[in-house]
Structures are given as structure tokens and as C-alpha cells.
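Collaboration report, partner site 2.

Our partner group contributed sequences for two proteins of shared interest, and the home lab folded both. The records are reproduced in the order in which they were received, starting with the first partner submission.
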Amino acid sequence: MHDEATVHYIDMIDQTTLGHRFIKDQFNTTPRAGWQIDPFGHSAVQGYLLGAELGFDSIHFARIDYQDRAKRK
């Protein structure tokens, strides 16, 4: 996931592209889902970039619920 702390949308695209290249080079796969684990707000570009532009199947924003986490242990 790219940095969202006061970055320009071009930086978001560049950081995401770099991350996807790394995953492709190292694991020979393409991410299909995004999870922003600890969001403190996000820009409108975030959802658009990860959904429409990257074609992710799903995007998840927020921490996992403590009850759900306990069930998964």
C-alpha cells in the first residue's frame, strides 16, 4: 500500500507501481485485493486508484474486529 500522508496522486501511483513490480518479480503474481490495515483517513484517490485503476477484486479499509480476530487465533 502506498503512503497517504500528504502525497500527490502521482506519488501514490508511482509507489503502488513499484510495489506491484516487486510482487511480480519476486512472486510472479499480481495482487487482486488491498487491505489498508490502520487507516487514519484516506483521500478520494485511494479508492479510485485501488478499485477502478488497478482492478482489485476487493479493498478493505480498517482494522479487523477484535472478536473476529479472536476466532481466527
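Second partner submission, folded after the first:
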Amino acid sequence: KAPAPPYESARRDLRQLPLVTIDGEDAHDFDDAVFAEKTKQGFRLIVAIADVSAYVRPGTALDREARRRGTSAYFPDRVIPMLPERLSNDLCSLKPGADRFAYVADLELDARGQSRRAVFYPAVIHSRARLVYEEVAEALEQRKPEARHRLEPVLEALEALYALYRILREAREKRGAIDFETREPRIVFGPDGEFTGIRIRERTDAHRLIEECMILANSEVAKWLEHKKIPALYRVHPPPQAERIADLREVLGNWGITLPGGAQPKPADFARLIQHLGNLPERRVV
């Protein structure tokens, strides 16, 4: 059944906060929502993830089938969900204008984006809007008046998110993080399911904003797990193999470009290389 009051006392009521979802225009399930506000100390950031555990209990038939599937399979024109569509596209989807159960990372950050406090708890939220990357980029990055007017009810929270994103991005760049600029092709189908073309999705600050929020929330959860000595699986990126680095040096050498960092370059060295390439055509090859 859809969530309805009264809610259990352990689940905090965040329905008064103007959380929003920001996804691609063709998204059908909305599993994360965000909110930010400026505070005297810096920022408050809330990342809410759909609380599937409110419906899928361990050991049930739903749980066993989800384990068997492992993940949802996304195809150009359809999705084979890990969970029944009643859950994935409805009850566990953070749709606008509906009460939904979520698990929340509630973070306090200083003016430099450094974490001051992080708490995690189950909540009930009420998303104010289902936004797409393009319109958020138009309002925040391009400052288009019509887009800003259209998003006026949630614009203050979006501006706080954007300000925090710029601070977090600058801090990551100073740490030498690599920003992989990719162009995602999207296959387009006509009304009868026939192939009509390929459209390139360009990444905007709206994409990066959500990425930074998720990285920060995941990092804080990882710190909490470490502090509590709770064993967990972490997704990591292993360093590139020596032969791959040698191949890269050879290609760069043909262009008169040197990869810094000696025999074992660090992420910061690759980041400097990408920055050095700027907007040169070779950047996408590298």
C-alpha cells in the first residue's frame, strides 16, 4: 500500500522540506531526492534514497527474486526491473506530490564543504518536483530567466545545492580527483519502436551536482561504517595496469605530450594531464 499517516515515530517527517529529484528526461523510477540550504556555519545537505526495505523484507519471495536478478537491466527502449514495477516505478519511486519512505543522509557542512556532522535515519518525504538535468542546467548554469521562473518554488534550494556543488568540486580538484568527461549516446526510437537515430547526451553542471551529492553521502556512510567497525563491500577503482600506462605514454609521445608522475602516476597526475589538454581534440582520445 502507498504510505499514509500516521507514520511510525522512528521515521522522521521531512515532508515540509522542498526535496526534488533530478534525472534524465526518460527516467521512470526516481530513487534519490536532494535538498540543501545555507546555514550560519555553511550548508545543510539532505540526500534521500528510496527505502525499499520498508516493503521488501529479508527472506521473502520478493527478496529472493531480487537477489537472483541482482540489478535492474536497462535496454534502450525498456527496463527489466529487479523489483516488480508496482514497487520500482510507484511505491519505491520518489514521485512528486506523494508521500514516500526514504532513508536519509542528513549532513552539516562548513563553508569550505567539510563535514561537521552526519546522521542517517528513516524518513517520510514529499518530493516537490520531478526535474530533468536540462532544465536545472538552464536555470543554474545558463541563468535563463524563463527556466528560473518555472523553477521558482524550489529555486532557493537549487541555488544552495549549486553553491555547495561548486565548493565540493573545487575541493576535489585540489585533491587531484579525475573528472572523466564523457558523452553518452542515447538510442532514439519512434512511436512504433523503430530506430530513428542516436542523440548525444552532454554532461552539464546539473549532472555533476547530483554526482557530488552522491559521492559526499556515500563517503559519509563509509566513514560511519568504518567507525562502527561494520564490514561492508566498497566499490573502488584499481590503478591502471603498467602496460596500459606504457601504451598511453606512447600515444602521448606522438603528440609531444608527457604524462607526469614517473613510473606510477597518481590520480592527480592524470587530472593534470586532462587539464593540460584543455579543449584539444586529443582530450577525448586520452
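Feedback sent to the partner group on the second submission included the following. The mean pLDDT is 92. The chain has two domains: 12-236, 237-286.
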